[in-house]
Amino acid sequence: MEHGTAVSVVTAGGEKFAVRKARREDVPALVALLADDPLGSGRETAPPEAYLSAFEAVDASDEQLLVCLTTASGEVVGTLQLTFIRGLSRGGALRGQIEAVRVHREYRSNGLGRLFVGWAVEECRRRGCVLVQLTSDRSRGDAHRFYERLGFVDSHGGFKLPLDP
Amino acid sequence: MEHGTAVSVVTAGGEKFAVRKARREDVPALVALLADDPLGSGRETAPPEAYLSAFEAVDASDEQLLVCLTTASGEVVGTLQLTFIRGLSRGGALRGQIEAVRVHREYRSNGLGRLFVGWAVEECRRRGCVLVQLTSDRSRGDAHRFYERLGFVDSHGGFKLPLDP
């Protein structure tokens, strides 16, 4: 995945899907997925250049991996971002963090989300992470059950402090 | 702070403390702080080289900032790590993440921790973050009240999945 060429394949509901590194031309589809969400709909109103500029920064970083989930015909139907965080704690461990998970509403409830996040966990393991972490808004009860079924433990409070622009 | 030269000063209980980027020679003191903790004590048993190697990776990254809190005489009495995460969501926003906060037990309860985390929030603001986030183990009730007094909202579940080595 580091070079943007490798593709992983997951099969859900008899259909094949690919997971690959996001490309610049995917950005509009990715933003549409982020916006098609009860919490995201009100906050994805920035001009296209803001998203392209953010994409360039993420794409250039060795510590970030933004991926697309696509159908066999290449339609982007999911996304998530991994951040690999080295720290001193836990013996100088690497941890993987999952952010901004979205699966298109027409592709939910057939196990695809589970396979997609499972792919992300395996990618973290492959890179040597000792832990995978994420936070999920408490208003997303379904998401919480989803992560618990994947083996995640809701052991921490997830604290956020918005900063005024 | 980017070049490891700038120092911020905070005053607590009539005493002056400095916040500066961590240096390689600080690593043993930082690991001692991480280990002097109910949750950290059992998990900081790696050989010194593991911590030095992790320090080099953190120090080399533009997306990481590991800092020391020191007394006027230079003793290291606190640490935290900031990670700056660019993403597509929220208009291509940058978010700041705080991890591995520790203040030496003899220096707690005089407002120093509050000033130290307040410094971290201001550093995130200075770099253009729209949000600061952290997770805190639910067993740390005092820490939760501490972050809430600083304005953080415990709005998310913090999910963790340990990976087998």
Give a verbal description of the structure.
- The structure is a homodimer of 165-residue chains.
- The first copy, chain A, has helices at residues 27-35, 48-60, 89-92, 112-126, 141-149; strands at residues 8-12, 15-21, 64-71, 76-86, 94-103, 131-137, 153-162.
- The first copy, chain A, is an alpha+beta fold and 165 residues long.
- Chain A has one domain (6-149): Gcn5-related N-acetyltransferase (GNAT) (Aminopeptidase, 3-Layer(aba) Sandwich).
- In chain A, strands 1-2-3-4-5-6 form a 6-stranded mixed sheet, sandwiched between helices.
- Chains A and B meet through helix 1, helix 2, strand 4, helix 3 and strand 5 of A and helix 1, helix 2, strand 4, helix 3 and strand 5 of B.
- Strand 7 (153-162) of chain A pairs antiparallel with strand 7 of chain B.
Percentage of residues in DSSP E strands of chain A:
35-45%
Per CATH, the architecture of chain A is: 3-Layer(aba) Sandwich
Class by alpha and beta content of chain A = alpha+beta
- For the record, give the distance between the C-alpha atoms at the N and C termini of chain A, rounded to a whole number: 35 Å
Mean pLDDT of chain A, rounded to whole units?
92
Radius of gyration of chain A: 16 Å
What is the assigned CATH homologous superfamily of chain A?
A: Gcn5-related N-acetyltransferase (GNAT)
Under the CATH scheme, which class of chain A?
A: Alpha Beta
Domain N-acetyltransferase (chains A, B): 17-165
Protein name (chains A, B): GNAT family N-acetyltransferase
EC number (chains A, B): 2.3.-.-
Organism (chains A, B): Pseudonocardia aurantiaca
